[in-house]
Design brief:
The complex is a heterodimer. Chain A is mostly helical. Chain A has two domains: 46 residues; 222 residues, MetI-like (MetI-like fold). A two-stranded antiparallel sheet of chain A has the order 1-2. In chain A, α2 packs across α6, α7 packs antiparallel against α8 and α8 packs antiparallel against α11. Chain A is flat. The relative contact order of chain A is 0.12. Chain B is α/β, with parallel strands linked by helices. Chain B folds into two domains: 189 residues, Periplasmic binding protein-like II (D-Maltodextrin-Binding Protein, domain 2), CATH 3.40.190.10; 150 residues, 3-Layer(aba) Sandwich (D-Maltodextrin-Binding Protein, domain 2). In chain B, strands 1, 2, 3, 4, 5, 6, 7, 8, 9 and 10 form a ten-stranded mixed beta sheet that branches. In chain B, β1, α3 and β2 form a beta-alpha-beta unit. In chain B, α9 runs parallel beside α17 and α13 crosses α14. Classes of the chains: A mainly alpha, B alpha/beta. Chains A and B meet through β2, α4, α9 and α10 of A and α1, α4, β6, α10 and α17 of B.
Chain lengths: 296, 405
Amino acid sequence: MAAVLPSAGKQSQVSAQRKSRTGYFLLLPGMTWLAIFFAIPFVTLFMTSLQAPVAGKSGQYVPAFQVSNYPDALAEYWPQFLRSFFYAGIATGLALLIAYPLAYFIAFKAGRWRALMLVLVIAPSFASFLLRTYAWKTILSDEGFITSFFNALHLLPDDRILNTSIAVVAGLTYNFLPFMILPLYAALEKIDPRLLEASNDLYASAFTTFRKITWPLSLPGVVAGTLLTFIPAAGDYINSELLGSTQDRMIGNVIQTNFIEFRDYPTASALSFVLMAVILVMVFTYIRRAGTEDLV
Amino acid sequence: MTTKRPEAVAAIAGQMRSAVSRRRLLQVAGIGSAAMVAAACGTGSSDSAGGEASASAAEDMSDTEKVVNWSNWPLYLDVNEDTGEYPTLAAFEEATGIDVTYTEDVNDNNEFFAKVRTQLEQGQDIGRDLVVLTDWMAALWIQSGFAQKFDKAMIPNSGNIIPRLAEVSFDKPREYTMPWQSGFAGLGYNVPALQSAMGKDALTSLDELFDPALKGRITLLSEMRDTMGCILAWKGFDPSNFTDAQFEEAIAALTEQVDNGQVRQVTGNDYIAAMESGDVIAVIGWSGDVIALGEDFGFSLPESGGTLWTDNMLIPALAQHKKNAEMVINNYYDPAVAAEVAAYVNYICPVEGAQAEMEKIDPDLATDEYIFPSSAMLDRAYVFMELTPEQNESYSRLFEKAIGN
């Protein structure tokens, strides 16, 4: 007895060890991927953001520890930063307003059309992002029917939509809408209909049922959807470049200009880093507030 | 000089391009290591900017590989729109047996340079044997040792260059560059739309361009030299010779028009689509582009003056088919061929004798001032001042800030 026990213990220890090693092996592809495509570029970007220019040689930089690149970049481009978050915020809000009823409908009311409707939500993504944004140039054209309609009602301050902030926000909302719909749908679809029935049986109004059951249970979808919309929208530059005017430049445009026109890699890298940091801070605060750490 | 398409399109073009160069790399590796060794030798020397031409030369594979890889701007070569074939290029291929891979992947000088810069600096072949760059960018390539000196014996037609372009400050006896086309930056407009907005058939000055009747319906070029050249001349300064203070004054004038909403957008080639759709009535644009739009559109050089630029053919450092590229250049300095190109692209032809050849193709075009400009016209067209790298950087920053970047 006494002789058997330790050996059994050893055996289980070995198998546990083997199991834990298997776990690490399973992690390997993911970790390698992260190292190559995230960690290395991340470090390179950070080092670039601290480089100093070579005197007398435009576009050439040497490794340094020039922290002042950060305040300099911020002082120069804070308006574009604020604008990016503002536009992305409005676009995210609008996307939520549009996506929630749609996702709700697909999840609860669409019946046998559900699969088809989901395909239709994703279908526009089959065409290139750029092409779809170009299409909006035609749709929002000054002579187009949308602009003419709003102009007839005297609703447009500049008598046009294209090349205004309205067009940029509309473009952002449209382009990232599927990223809002899909997580919302996934969250709503999981809700047990018996909960809704129970609420009904207890004489809750439709509104109360929504407020007390549907909405709280869909929160993970709301959080995921807003993040998936807000983050790419804040860094986007195509919508601003194609649909905006010179007054609508976002931080992505500025980063691009610094990289390509000025060949000012440190400033561009510093801006990218600040953008990442600000978004990270916002995301953490947001997730804490929403109280869904375990769900995201 | 024609276009600035958005980055994504350029990136796609770039990817197609790099697929080609990867294939080429494999070819080179297969054929032998001589070229690789030559390329490796080139590495050290072209790192030191301003290296000798010989240091940036690779072993010429022209005799064994009958190919040329040519990068040019979009819509810059005569094309048969039905077959997608380039007639003058096809004739050249037939006559010489050289296979030309023609790629329209230069959309913007800075953008193109950003794409190939790392390879050039590390002394690698960029996979192109012939590229077309605007004066100031060509100057930068020559200064940095990114260009190869021509063997003029291979370009007997080079003597056909028009005298005005035979010498330029950045390449005095034309050893590294030959002009492809020149053009004006000036005023382009949609005639019917202008008629209904202002009751005019043509624009002749920037005062009219900045008239409140056109508020929100005009665009400017994102090419700093062209937009600022026109504005400097409008403010009464000489775009070929101005001071920092004068440039800043011109920037202030630009900022005013941007901030008051007069300027709708500042773009590359996108203005063409916006003019066609009717969203934009008038622009500072490029002569050939606007003329090619057809009857309803007009182009004029402002009374105060516009800019005159030239795009140049240049052989990049370590290009492997130099001789073949020189034969291409020679081909396009044949007046008959040059006339054929000019008839399609509507830009200023740099080849002497092309005007006589044009008589045979289209007598109307032979007297077209935008293809064969008169000296009176050239008096109003300024070549933008040559900038030091520091000036280039500080002026670009002022310009980009004014246009919201």
